[in-house]
Prior knowledge:
By secondary structure, the chain is an alpha+beta fold. It folds into three domains: 4-62, CATH 2.40.50.140; 66-135, DNA polymerase, domain 1 (Orthogonal Bundle), CATH 1.10.150; 146-199, Orthogonal Bundle (Helicase, Ruva Protein, domain 3). It has ten helices and five strands, in the order E-E-E-H-E-E-H-H-H-H-H-H-H-H-H. It has helices at 32-36, 65-74, 82-91, 94-103, 106-109, 117-127, 136-145, 154-163, 168-181, 191-202, and strands spanning 4-12, 16-21, 24-29, 43-53, 56-62. It has a five-stranded mixed beta barrel with strand order 1-2-3-5-4. Strand 4 and strand 5 (56-62) form a beta hairpin. The relative contact order is 0.12. One of its GO terms (biological process) is DNA recombination. This is Holliday junction branch migration complex subunit RuvA.
Amino acid sequence: xxxxxxxxxxxxxxxxxxxxxxxxxxxxxxxxxxxxxxxxxxxxxxxxxxxxxxxxxxxxxxxxxxxxxxxxxxxxxxxxxxxxxxxxxxxxxxxxxxxxxxxxxxxxxxxxxxxxxxxxxxxxxxxxxxxxxxxxxxxxxxxxxxxxxxxxxxxxxxxxxxxxxxxxxxxxxxxxxxxxxxxxxxxxxxxxxxxxxxxxxxxx
Length: 204
């Protein structure tokens, strides 16, 4: 089991990173927000989990151990595989996702592509007593992350959204709506927060 890795970022994509560890470039699947939060040449530290299949070994990386633990937990539900689990974390911050599961908030869960009402009900039924306590501070942090970004990073988020299949106008409009709804001047340096919020906006 590869629990974590630390190394120089060689390449980034919409949902992938290549991190050099001990002279070996490791391809890591991750959320768009995590991929957008690092730069080529910088050192990245990721919590990881290795998914083993008959024909593949796939390494998934996360910004925090909380994300990784939740990624593993939701896969204990029938019908939820690694790709869907990763999509859940791409749309929602861990604390928001935990709160939705614990509180039976189906509307939040079905915003994730691939999760319908029945799937959301099954996730809540099987995990509501397993997600652990949801802290108010964690929810507040997640809410702040979801509504703030530095203007200079907007283009990066728009580019990521276009790469995921939306038109440039749809991506721009979603980013503008999120920034307009941010408290104050909305100038907080959090690329991942804006990307998550824009994905939620586009899923409405």
